[in-house]
Amino acid sequence: MTDKENEPVSESLETYSPPPKTFWKTVAALGPGIILASSIVGSGELIATTVVGAKVGFSLLWLIILGCAVKVAAQIEIGRNAITWGRTPLASFDRVPGPRVAGRGWIYWCWVVMMVLIVVQQGGILAGVGQSLAAALPLTTSGRVAGELYEELAKAEIDTALAAREGHADVLAMEKKLTVLRRQSKELNTPYDASIYAVLMAILTGVLLAGGRYGLIERLSLVLVLAFTLFTFLAVVMLQADPNWAVSSEEWMAGLTPSLEGASGGFSVALAALGIIGVGAAELMVYPYWCLEKGYGKSVGAHSSSECWAANAKGWMRVMQLDAWLSMIVYTSVTVFFYVLGAATLGRLGLVPSGNEMVRTLGQMYVPIFGVWIQQVFLLGAFAVLYSTFFVAAAGNSRMVADGLVLAGLLPGDEASRRKAVRVMCVVWVIAALAMAFLFRAPVAMEIESGVAQA
């Protein structure tokens, strides 16, 4: 079988449809960018971007904004290629000149390595989903006891850091209490609540994705994106309204001035941040799959040299460009919001989320702004943010893996076989992510390493 026969084409391109002319019809034609945003505005922002802000303060804010802005050009170009030729991005990249191994190009094998690391990242996200649900709704007595201890520890860390920042006299006593709580948390047997929730959510995700199609994914993505975009925007507004926590003009200027001097860890931290923020390498490749599944490729029709085809293609390119730019505005805004929250609260207090207390420590960044009551709300919000990433990334990456198997000649390239393979890979992907969650149990490290791989 030749490479051309192996190449997957996502839609039948025998017919075409004219692009929308009115505002509301254009809005109705958008959607792939919303799915992309919900996979981006999730673990990368909640965990990785916030952790980078906590570690280096405001010094890499310029890189966060630049990284989000420059990637949209690549996103549009890769999408344009897929829509124009009806060829999936993996098939297009496999045509790039260079060394070939086992019949596949060098980019294909780079993609294989990246996908292995992304499965690890997905395991970290699933672990975070389990943590957020276990913290909000513990299932066992040991889970409730551990939850109370972790909550007391997270609160003690905030109180001690605040007291040290404000020069209170009782800081030493608070530090002693904090040391005791840290020792107790290390000696505590890890409850199974988070693991049980991770298994349950993996099963639910596999069922939804195996039976769901594009419409379900788009609608769920829209709801989740709107929810956590509004939540983080409100948090930043309230942060700026509090003189004790507001970001000063000097801090804004320092953050917007290109430099790596203020970043401890320098290049490695910057590299991880650049890979994580905005559209990563995986999202760049997944976006065209959603464009094809939305029907952009079918609407453009089979590639032709006629003026009629060119005019129709340009119209649909404008729709895709609008979709991409709107998604960029959403994910850039929320990325900046999370980074500022992490730098302004956790960074100033010297707290870096990690381990079993990751989600609870992240929740502490909202306490100075909203008060203690926000912790439970945050846990539900963290679940929504993390689960949106897990759900959408599993859906998108499963399509890429199925595509990769077709290119390798392990699956037939017809549309019916491809759709069946996608459903199967959705289940396989979720099982693999669950295995990674149990194997590594370090969500922050798993997220950061994947970011480096995508830089």
How would you explain this protein's 3D organization?
The chain is an all-alpha fold. It folds into two domains: 385 residues, Amino acid/polyamine transporter I, CATH 1.20.1740; 51 residues. The protein is built from 21 helices and two strands. Strands 1-2 form a two-stranded antiparallel ribbon. Strand 1 and strand 2 form a beta hairpin. Helix 3 packs across helix 11, helix 7 crosses helix 10 and helix 19 crosses helix 20. The longest helix is centred in the C-terminal third of the chain and has 43 residues. It is globular.
Topology, element by element:
Blueprint: H1 3-6, H2 23-29, H3 32-40, H4 43-56, H5 61-85, H6 89-93, E1 100-101, E2 104-105, H7 106-136, H8 141-166, H9 171-187, H10 193-211, H11 214-241, H12 249-256, H13 266-276, H14 281-294, H15 296-300, H16 307-349, H17 358-363, H18 367-370, H19 374-407, H20 415-440, H21 443-454
Antiparallel strand pairs: 1-2
Helix pairs in contact: 3-11, 3-14, 3-16, 3-19, 4-16, 4-21, 5-13, 5-14, 5-16, 7-10, 7-19, 7-20, 7-21, 8-9, 10-20, 11-16, 11-19, 13-21, 14-19, 19-20
